[in-house]
Design goal:
about 525 residues; alpha/beta; Copper Amine Oxidase, Chain A, domain 1; SH3 type barrels; TIM Barrel; 3 domains; eleven-stranded mixed sheet; five-stranded antiparallel sheet; 11 helices; 36 strands; elongated
C-alpha cells in the first residue's frame, strides 16, 4: 500500500492524545473510560506525566505529583491529600489485571492539565495547561491530511468555521492541527484563519540569584542567632543554622529562631540577601532513617518546613542531611520529591547538600545525586573533608585536583547534573596535622583567619601545583607538624572552577572563618558586591 494511504491509526480501543501526539500505540496498558471517569495506568502516568509516581506499600497508597503539586491517594478510597489538604474524588484508584489505574480526569489539578473524552471518536484528549495553546478557524470545508501532501489519506473533515488547535507551523505551506474530535493531521496554511493564542508557555518562576554566593552562618542549637550589621562582602545568600531534627523525634524539628533570628532575617533582607536556613540531621543516622522510611513522618517534616518558610518569610531552605544509610538513598530522594512541589507552590528555593561521590556507604553512597540534581533548585557539593577528622593519613582538606575530579563526576556521565544547578562549597577552615606519641597522624581544624597565629611565621611554605595550596611542614614542641594551607590563592583556584564549568555559584563553610581579603576576592571573582 502507498505510504500516503497506509492506515496506522488505532480503531479497536480508546485513543489517548496528549498535547501534540496520539500516544495510544506507546501505552503499556490500555486507557479506558468508566462512568465518565478517564483511567490511566500507573506505568503510563510514569512514562508521560510523573516519572516519580510511587506506590507506598506501608499505607497502600499512590503518591504522585507535578512541579507544584503532590498528592497521596489510598487505593480504593474516594479522597486524596493535595499539598497537605484533603480533597474528595468521585472515583477511586482501581486494581485491574494486576495493575493500578488512577482516575486521571479527577487529577487534572495535580498534573495541571485539562482532560476530556470525545465519545464520537473514542478519544481522550489531555492538554497541559503550562504549554502554549493556539486555536484557529477553518475558512473552508477541508480535509485533514495524514501527511503534508494533498494526495495523502484524509484523517478527518472540517466544516467552514470549525475550530482547530494549532500544533505546529512549518513556516511554509502546511500547518499541523488537532480537530475537536482528537484527530491530528495537516491542512494547508492558507485554509485557517482567526488565529488566537489562548496562553503562552508558562514557566515556574522563582526569585533566584544570577550567581549564588552562599555563606552558612553556624551557631549552636542552644545559642541565639548572631547579631549582624552592614554587608558581608561577596555574599548574596545566607544560611543560618535555624533548624535541627529532634533525636528519634518522628520528624519533629527543633527550631532556634526566636527574636534574635527574626532580627537576623530582617537584617539579611535589608541587605538584599536571600535567606535559606539550613535544616540539619546532625548526622543522626537512625533518626533520619526513621523519617525516610515512613510517608507520614516525611509529610510531618515537610509540613513543618513549609510552615517555617511562611511564618518567618524565608526565601528557601537548605537540606543538610549527612551520614545516612545507603539503603535509604531512594527514600531520601522520595522525601525531596515530595518536598519540592510544596516549595514550588510558595516560590521557595530548595537547595540540598551532598558530599563527594567517592567515599563510604553512609557518607557518600547515600545520595542519588542525579535525581537530587533534577528535583532540587540547587545541589551543593560540599568539597571538603577530603582528609577529615578521622583520617589516619595526613593530607589536604580540599585539594584542587580532588575537587575538580569529583566535580567532573557531577557534570559528567557518572551523575549527569546540569552545571547551572551545582553550587561548589569550599572551606573557610583547614587542618593542622601532627604525629602523636605512637607516631600516628592526628589533626585539628582551624579557621583560616586564625591559621596564621598557629603556623610559625618562619615555617617554610612550598606551593604544590597539584593541590594548588601552600604546604608547610615544621617541628613544634619536638613534633612534626604539617598543614595544607587554605588562603586567598587556594580559594581563588577553586573559584576558577565556577567559571570553568559554568556552575550556579559557590558556598562557604562557615561565617567567621574567613578573612576580609578572601571576601574581597569572592566579590571580584563572582561579581557580587
Amino acid at each position: 500500500m502507498h505510504g500516503n494511504y497506509e492506515r496506522n491509526d488505532v480503531i479497536d480501543r480508546v485513543n489517548l492524545v496528549i498535547n501534540h501526539s496520539n500516544v495510544t500505540k506507546d501505552l503499556e496498558k490500555e486507557a479506558f473510560v468508566e462512568n465518565g471517569v478517564t483511567y490511566i495506568s500507573k506505568e503510563d502516568i510514569a512514562n508521560f506525566f510523573d516519572p516519580y509516581i510511587y506506590y507506598d506499600e506501608k499505607y497502600n497508597q499512590m503518591i504522585t505529583g507535578s512541579e507544584s503539586k503532590i498528592a497521596a491517594i489510598v487505593v480504593g478510597e474516594k479522597k486524596m491529600t493535595n499539598n497537605g489538604s484533603v480533597v474528595n474524588l468521585s472515583a477511586p484508584i482501581l486494581e485491574k489485571d494486576n495493575a493500578y489505574y488512577l482516575p486521571f480526569s479527577e487529577l487534572d489539578s495535580i498534573y495541571n492539565v485539562k482532560t476530556k473524552y470525545i465519545e464520537e471518536t473514542n478519544t481522550i484528549i489531555i492538554d497541559s495547561l503550562n504549554r502554549k495553546y493556539v486555536v484557529a478557524d477553518s475558512n473552508k470545508n477541508n480535509g485533514v491530511k495524514v501527511k503534508k501532501t494533498a494526495i495523502s489519506r484524509t484523517v478527518d473533515k472540517l466544516e467552514r468555521g470549525e475550530n482547530v488547535t494549532i500544533l505546529e507551523e512549518d513556516g511554509k505551506s502546511w500547518t499541523k492541527i488537532r480537530t475537536d474530535r482528537g484527530k491530528i493531521g495537516y491542512v494547508k496554511s492558507n485554509t485557517i484563519t482567526n488565529k488566537n493564542t489562548i496562553r503562552e508557555d508558562l514557566q515556574l518562576e522563582k526569585e533566584k540569584p544570577n550567581k549564588v554566593s552562599l555563606i552558612w552562618d553556624s551557631f549552636s542549637e542552644y545559642a541565639s542567632a548572631p547579631e549582624r550589621s552592614g554587608k558581608i562582602t561577596g555574599v548574596n545568600v545566607v544560611s543560618p543554622t535555624f533548624f535541627t531534627l529532634e533525636r528519634l523525634g518522628k520528624g519533629k524539628v527543633e527550631e532556634n529562631v526566636g527574636n534574635s533570628g527574626k532580627e537576623y532575617i530582617k537584617w539579611a533582607h535589608k541587605q538584599g540577601y536571600q535567606v535559606w536556613p539550613s535544616i540539619s540531621n546532625s548526622s543522626m543516622i537512625d533518626t533520619t532513617s526513621e523519617i525516610m522510611n515512613d510517608y507520614k513522618l516525611r509529610q510531618s517534616l515537610i509540613n513543618q518546613i513549609v510552615s517555617f518558610i511562611i511564618k518567618y518569610d524565608l526565601d528557601g531552605i537548605n537540606i543538610d542531611f549527612e551520614n545516612m544509610y545507603q539503603e535509604d538513598k531512594e527514600l531520601f530522594s522520595r522525601f525531596l520529591i515530595e518536598l519540592a512541589p510544596r516549595l514550588n507552590e510558595i516560590g521557595a528555593v530548595l537547595s540540598v547538600d551532598v558530599t563527594a561521590p567517592d567515599g563510604s556507604e553512609t557518607w557518600s553512597m547515600c545520595y542519588d545525586r542525579h535525581t537530587i540534581g533534577k528535583i532540587a533548585d540547587y545541589i551543593v557539593f560540599m568539597a571538603y573533608d577530603q582528609h577529615g577528622d578521622s583520617s589516619e593519613e595526613a593530607g589536604s582538606n580540599a585539594a584542587f585536583d580532588w575537587v575538580e575530579v569529583n566535580l567532573q563526576k557531577f557534570v559528567g556521565t557518572q551523575e549527569e547534573i546540569a552545571p547551572e544547578k551545582i553550587v561548589l562549597a569550599m572551606p573557610f577552615y583547614t587542618r593542622i596535622w601532627w604525629t602523636n606519641s605512637e607516631g600516628k597522624w592526628v589533626n585539628e581544624a582551624w579557621d583560616l583567619n586564625s591559621l596564621y597565629n598557629k603556623v610559625p611565621s618562619n615555617a617554610k611554605k612550598v606551593w604544590d601545583d597539584d593541590v594548588k595550596q601552600y604546604v608547610s611542614e615544621y617541628i613544634q614542641d619536638g613534633t612534626v607538624h604539617k598543614v595544607w594551607i587554605e588562603d586567598e590563592k587556594s580559594i581563588e583556584e577553586k573559584l576558577s572552577l565556577v567559571e570553568k564549568y559554568k556552575l550556579a555559584g559557590a558556598a562557604y563553610w562557615k561565617k567567621g572563618g574567613e578573612t576580609q581579603n578572601i571576601l574581597k576576592l569572592i566579590s571580584e571573582k563572582l561579581g557580587i558586591e
